[in-house]
Write a structure and sequence with these properties.
Four copies of one chain form a homotetramer. Chain A has 142 residues and is of the alpha+beta class. Chain A has two helices and five strands; from the N terminus they run βαββββα. Chain A has a five-stranded antiparallel beta sheet with strand order 1-3-4-5-2. The longest helix of chain A is centred in the first third of the chain and has 19 residues. Chains in contact: A-B, A-C, A-D, B-C, B-D, C-D. The interface between A and B is medium-sized, with 24 and 24 residues.
Chain lengths: 142, 142, 142, 142
């Protein structure tokens, strides 16, 4: 999937995620679905904490248009996951993120990407990314 | 994303999934992560109910190697989702599924794909798909 | 935990809930946490579908103040759960529900209760249950 | 619900839990169901990390028989939760835990309890708590 192993330092924003008991499925490891929740979490942490997105009342919200994950290694509770985020492409009203997950020992466990389309909260139609948010996304950019 | 709208009849195996209150996120619709749980659910329902996979004691288990989803329309609790499953490619020890999700009115809300690699439960190394399972997967095939 | 086995007919409102692959935990059965999601789901299905609660814009919303569950038997995906709901006590701004869960064969798997306090969406202070909602809750009452 | 506010120092074992985007529900705060996942997580973290429970192959496993939560205040992603655990009663094959959750500012957001019955992994019949596990539970005891 990658010729070179990535590391958290390849990603401009990094978040620690603690695993939960019920993340583990019947086969004893974190279920594939939860990896997307880790993607969703690091993205929204960045948007809220770093870029000032107001999820409760802001006029612009981000909706997922497409996502993808390559699963490279298992991880299991009670480990901790490090999620890395960077921006691969920034359009007028959309952004394509690249993401990677690492286990507690720094081993890459997944890589993926995720497209957010920003829309008006009321009409749910595509809306230009607000300037302050765009400036922050550019800092994570290619 | 598609030039023609798909329908459940394009998929050889179909499952009804009832939504849950906490599927809805802050923005009032089912969170993107749950769509992958619906994929996971229809796949494993087929493997267990139709193809006889023994998740508790069988010697072969399926692990997700890669997955993808295009999100086409929102859906919200208390609606119901129909998940459709078919086989796009069947290898020696892996299978690539194509999936689609429809809301309670039959509107396509997502399309995606998912690769299962079958492995030995103990060693977690790739293992040929058992003949009885392969026969069932072929019935869903291209 | 109960001297007599309950049945869905002891509950005025009943909902079918389909299980999902990731509901099963390491021990092969639905994780205890999900039982509360089934409670939450049948309650909100009743409030939205039967009693007209507007979760997106209504001025009154229901917040959980207390909940409890006795776990009586396991259940596992790909089974289906029937959730039963009745009203045990209806106050000015709160309601205490009683709930039961049954597996696909009708065997009781859990009993519990759940207290909703209705609050103003903006101030989050306790607010009288709106008359139309109260009338519906009374129909499920003791 | 309590006459005195509790603090993490009232609990012998404490765990940090990072919140996730989809923990927030339509009303903008962590859904009530997730609180039980935080209980489940701190309990199993203690059992695995501190008390040596082998969730994959050990002969004894813990099943939830009863749980309860009083919800005292909301919390929302991207905050962090501190979960505190202590043992209220230790029987021959069961243990009753008391739990509390605190937000990132140390405010108590919930208190509850949870009963684990230890059973033989194969027969799922009640089994005495193994001595090494019992010794660790006693350290959290009343």
């Amino acid at each position: 999937m990658t010729t070179e192993m990535s590391s958290p330092s390849d990603y401009g924003y990094v978040n620690q995620i603690t695993l939960r008991w019920k993340d583990n499925d019947v086969y004893g490891h974190v279920n594939n679905v939860e990896y997307y929740s880790f993607f969703d979490t690091v993205i929204n942490a960045f948007l809220i904490v770093e870029a000032g997105l107001d999820i409760h009342a802001g006029s612009t919200i981000g909706l997922c248009a497409e996502s993808h994950c390559n699963f490279m290694a298992p991880v299991a509770f009670p480990d901790t996951v490090t999620a890395g985020l960077r921006v691969a492409h920034l359009g007028n009203s959309s952004v394509r993120y690249e993401l990677a997950l690492f286990d507690g020992g720094g081993v890459p466990i997944a890589e993926g990407w995720f497209v957010h389309v920003f829309v008006d909260r009321g009409t749910r139609r595509a809306s230009p990314i607000p300037p302050s948010l765009r400036a922050k996304l550019e800092e994570l950019g290619p």
